[in-house]
Structure formats: structure tokens, C-alpha cells
Amino acid sequence: MLHGGALPRTSPLFSFFIKIPLPLIFRTSCRFFRPILRSPKPKPTLNSTYSFSMDKRLNLCTLALSDNSPSPSSPAVSNKAMKKARRESPEGVLRHKLDMCSRHGQLVQALSLYDEARSNGVPLSLHHYNVLLYLCSSNGGGDDGDVGLKRGFEIFRQMVEDKVVPNEATFTSAARLAIAGEDPEMAFHLVKQMKGLGIPPKLRSYGPALFEFCKKGEADRAYEVDAHMVESGVVAEEPEITALIKVSSDSSRGDKVYEMLHRLRTTVRQVSESTYGVVEEWFKSEEAAKVGVETWDVNKVREGVVRGGGGWHGQGWLGSGNWRVERTQMDEEGTCSCCGEKLVSIDIDPKETENFATSLSKLASQREVRGDFIRFQEWLQGHGPFDAVVDGANVGLVNQHNFSFFQLDTLVNRLRQMSPSKRLPLVILHQNRVTGGPAQNPNNKRLLESWKKSGALYSTPVGSNDDWYWLYAAVNCKCLLVTNDEMRDHLFQLLGTSFFPRWKEKHQVRLSVSRRGLNLHMPPPYSIVIQEAEDGEWHVPTTTGDDIETPRQWLCATRARNTK
């Protein structure tokens, strides 16, 4: 039984795992696949990135291993019949049962199915092996954890002997197995092997090694993993950066804490409560009191602020002595209630907005009926620009059980009054909202007709997602967007985490309803992002609070002698 400790370097498992002849697998596997593919494409090399989908690999393996593969002269079989045959084959039944085990975390049952399949000569595909390795690597506690660790290495060895080509998921599970044995060196070695074999690592591939090095306090090794991530084009997210801040703080590496705080600023913007705790712990530490300079070149700091677009200077820790660390909040103008520092609004490069509009148009055209979206773009070009765009469906349902045209009209009139040109905003509504339900009311019909005649209404076609339309219109017109949609679902995740959150912060108007009617919450006049002041103060926003129902919580860190 394996209990906790890392696999010793004399362990047969360690020797096997480090010396796996993976290049040999790739060479033999390429020869194995070539006759089936019958493709004029160039032969894959060790550095090629295999682009087979998991299902395709499964089919290739099944075809190659089957003695009953149909010959070219065999009668045609329908796709439905072929799918049924695959599903009911021993391999298909095993796949279904293993998937059920994975869904319910049943490691022992999965291992029993594996042993039975091996004894019955059922060939295992990449998917089978990946599910087994995932289960083995995910059961970290108690007897199941020991069994998972031991059997996981055995299953990986069998996969190698079966000449099944591994993919990123295989290596990631293997790295997690190494961490189950508390061996981050092995986990990191596996990630490096991936890159050498042309398999692009993902963020999850690096996680096991990075988090374990951080947990063990091996800061330099954690930085090596981080550097390898950067070299591979993998971007660390909040958990990874927080772990690096923690290990840097515990290792008295103030320079690295400074570097990681700035990476947190550009990547995350607002931090979770757990990250808040790690940052707070740093500023309250003895090491934090030691870092920094008592005198600095003010002009150089200001140049850094201008060069960075505002909100930070990047010149290192300023000031000396203990930090005063408080939980605080900002007033409507962005002034800290603790230290009196006024936060700044960080500008967006117009070129970034243009690039974002282009990429948004491309994404929308791929996911909507292309002709429909092109017609909308042409309509917008002829009727725009607007000072505001309204997500009509969202606004009409704020604090309402049924869609309210009265509420939507109230907002439209408010926005018209606010407009410098006194122009109506653009209202985006789905076709069903314009033709059915409350739209049949005579008053609402007249309202819709007046908006349409004024060129202030666009109804999105049946089957479309109106989110693409109102978002594109607001970005293209460089105007305000009125919606309470948090824009966090899959559609908006496609837009990335670099530019979109910054754009949304500066353009989204949110609504609340009170006894006095509609309340508009305009974009804040400051940026809700980690800010480093010219005289060394730090302000870190959290995800706690939204400045509508409850004030957003911030961390304020100032040198005691620099308090305003």
C-alpha cells in the first residue's frame, strides 16, 4: 500500500514512468494508422500536433483492431446502423459503463470493468484509458486513493504497451497521479514531455505541478513551471497567480509578490475573498514592511503611469515601514473612504475597440444565420450611430412577472432626454416580442410602430440570439448599453477576459426599480481594477458587492506615514 509519501527514485513505478518510450509509441502508432487513413497528407512527425478528435481516434483503433472490418466491396450500411453496432459492441458497452462510473465517481467499479475487459480480450481505446486514468487520479483520499495511485500507473503502462496514442487529457491525469504520490517533479516532467511530443499543454496540465510546488514552499520550482506556461502560451488565472503570491510571500520574495500583483491586475481585475486573504496576509507580514524605497524619482513614476495608461506605475514598492491594511469601499466618485485616495479611470485604446468589434462580428456571423446578421449590420450602418442601445427583453422584465412595454417606454424616454442630440436609443427586441403577447395590445402596437418609423427598433429574426445584436450595436456605435444581463454565460466567455470586461465596465448601464420608478446606474467614473497610486498606495477590488444593492468591498493598503 502506498501511503502519502512521494514515490522513491528507486521505485520501479518511478523508473517506468520517467523512461516511458513515448516517441516509440508515436512512431509505431503512426505506422499503425497510416493504411486506414488513405490520405495524401504528409506523414506526421514527432513534433506534429495530432488533430484527431477523441471519437475519430476511437474509430481508428476499433477498425484497426477488429478482424471483422468491412471490406470495400461490402454492402453500404446506414449511419444509424453503424452507430447502433458501435454502441452495442463490447467496446461500446464498456465505454458507456465507464462513463457512468466517471459520472458517479465509482473507481472500484471502473477497475472491475477494466479487469473484466482485459480478461475477455476487449480492446481499449484512448477514451477508455482516459476515463480510467481520470478516475484513478481523482480519488485522493483513503483506501480508494491508494488503489487509484497504484492501479493508475499500471493502467498507464498497459496503455503504452497497447500502443494507444496519449493526448493532453492522458498526460494531465498522469500528472495528477504523480501529485497523489506527492511528486511535483514527476508531474512537471510529464508536462515537458507533452510539449516535446507536439501535444499542446493546457492550464489544467500545469496545475498539479504548480500547486504542489507552491504547497511545498518550493518557490523557484514553481517559478520554473510558471515560466514554462508562459513559453507555451498558457495564461495563468486567479488560482494559479494567487498560489504564486502565497509562495512568494512565504519565501520573503517581495519582488515576485509585486510582479504577481500586477499580473493579477491585468488578468483578474476583481479578486475573490480567498485571494483577498492572501493579499491581505502579505501586506500585514514583516517582509512587506521591509520592502520599498524611502525616496524615488517622482518624474519616473509619473512617466510609468502615463506609459501604462493610468492606475499603476510598475516602478516597484514605494515607501517604507508597516502597512495599514483596511477593508474599505469607494464613494460614487471613486474616493476611498479609508485613505482618501481618488481612483482613476483607465482609458481604452480606440484600436482595441475596433479590433473587438471585428472579432465580435466574426463570432456572431459564425453562430447566427450569416445573412440575418449581415442584414442587421447594413441596417445599423444606415440608421446609426446611436447614443444608447437597449436590451429590450431584459429591461421589460426587470422586477416584472410579465413583459412591460410601459417600463421599456419609460426607459426609452429617459434615455432620449439624456441624449445630447435628443435622439431615441436603439431598442433590440426579438421578433416574438414584437408580434406576440403584450405586443398585440393596441397601445403597444402604436408604440412599436412609432419606434420603427423613427428607426429606433430592430427586431431580431426567429431562431436568433438577440444578445449578439445588442452587444454588437453598442460596441459598433461606441455607446452605452442598457441591460442587467451579467454577460457571464458561454456566449460571452467566447469574447475572452482581456478586453471585454474593461469595455463592459465603461459602457454598461444597469437598472433597479424602486417606489420612485426606474433608477439608472451609470458606469463608474473610475476603473474597478487593482490600482497602484503614484505614492505607493494599493487598492484591490473584490467580487463582494456590486455597488447597486451593496457597496463593493476593497482592500486598502497604505504606508502608515503616507496616509492622506
TrEMBL record:
What is the top-level taxon of the source organism?
Eukaryota
Q: Quick one: a GO cellular component term?
A: mitochondrion
**Which reaction is this enzyme known to catalyze?**
Endonucleolytic cleavage of RNA, removing 5'-extranucleotides from tRNA precursor
Q: Where in the cell is it found?
A: Mitochondrion
Q: What range(s) does the PROP1-like PPR domain occupy?
A: 83-289
Q: EC no.?
A: 3.1.26.5
Q: Which residues form the PRORP domain?
A: 330-556
GO BP field: tRNA 5'-leader removal
Instruction: Enumerate the InterPro entries for this protein.
Output: PROP1-like_PPR_dom, PRORP_C, TPR-like_helical_dom_sf
Q: Which GO terms describe its molecular function?
A: metal ion binding; ribonuclease P activity
Name the needed cofactors. Answer: Mg(2+)
Keyword tRNA processing among UniProt keywords: yes
- Keywords assigned by UniProt, alphabetized: Hydrolase, Magnesium, Manganese, Metal-binding, Mitochondrion, Nuclease, Repeat, Transit peptide, tRNA processing, Zinc
Region span, Disordered: 66-89
Q: Which family does it belong to?
A: Belongs to the PPR family. P subfamily.
**What's this protein's name?**
ribonuclease P
Source organism: Malus domestica (Apple)
Q: Provide the organism lineage as a comma list.
A: Eukaryota, Viridiplantae, Streptophyta, Embryophyta, Tracheophyta
